[in-house]
């Protein structure tokens, strides 16, 4: 495992204060056949992380730095294309897949978000600007499947419940809204001509789905509010690790025992950080669209089993997309 970047390690972060759990996947994260003892250990560690913090760093997950870096390079190549070529892949209204330019998404409804994004929702070659991005999506899908098996292990549910309810990941939006999102954040230069004063890299929100896997190339302003706190705190960057955080659907399924953590990406105040660009990628793991989300699904021995409103996974995410894209 790489060491923390020396340029950033003087920043006070949750990582520097040892406040983010670090979970070792034992090099089993993308293997087809999982070792039961590793699944059980990781499941208990994830349960503790999600109930106490809402996030964790995953190490020894099986995805190499070179594989992730190659994905970022291909995305850079896409961004270098002429505008008319990029526009062929623009995200269309009513869809989540494709390219989203800076300023389109505004989580608070008003502040432009300074980033380029490309959403991959299926492995159909026609929807991908580079096949290598499809290969990266397949690898992250395998890691997500491992996490789903581990999450089920300590719960009072069938071992395959989460795998079965997520069986159509990356089969397209009609079946499942799981998405690999490639992200590029440009450098921020003060008083740059034409740049809006009020910008943010990503506005405050909680993720919509089951969980999110995040890889990033540097400390770039990711902040969270830990459970029970109203204070925004910088997470920090652990090279080679993948950050996992719980989403709203997992929180609903567990009656809020597992936290959906509010987070944002600010423009860093440190000039040496804001002056460099930043890459990241996020794999948003969602249940199949037809899956009914009810707090009675993931039983806890002492849990409240009373009835409550039931939504499909698709209904929940469509509501969120309307809030994010409908106020431009």
Automatic annotation (TrEMBL):
**By its UniProt entry, which Pfam families does this protein fall under?**
2OG-FeII_Oxy (PF03171), DIOX_N (PF14226)
One annotated GO molecular function is: oxidoreductase activity
Print the keywords alphabetically.
Answer: Iron, Metal-binding, Oxidoreductase
In this chain the Fe2OG dioxygenase domain maps to 176-287
Family matches, as InterPro entries:
DIOX_N, IPNS-like_FE2OG_OXY, IPNS-like_sf, Iron_ascorbate_oxido_reductase, Oxoglu/Fe-dep_dioxygenase_dom
Q: Which family does it belong to?
A: Belongs to the iron/ascorbate-dependent oxidoreductase family.
Family matches, as PANTHER family: 2-OXOGLUTARATE (2OG) AND FE(II)-DEPENDENT OXYGENASE SUPERFAMILY PROTEIN-RELATED
Q: What is this protein called?
A: Fe2OG dioxygenase domain-containing protein
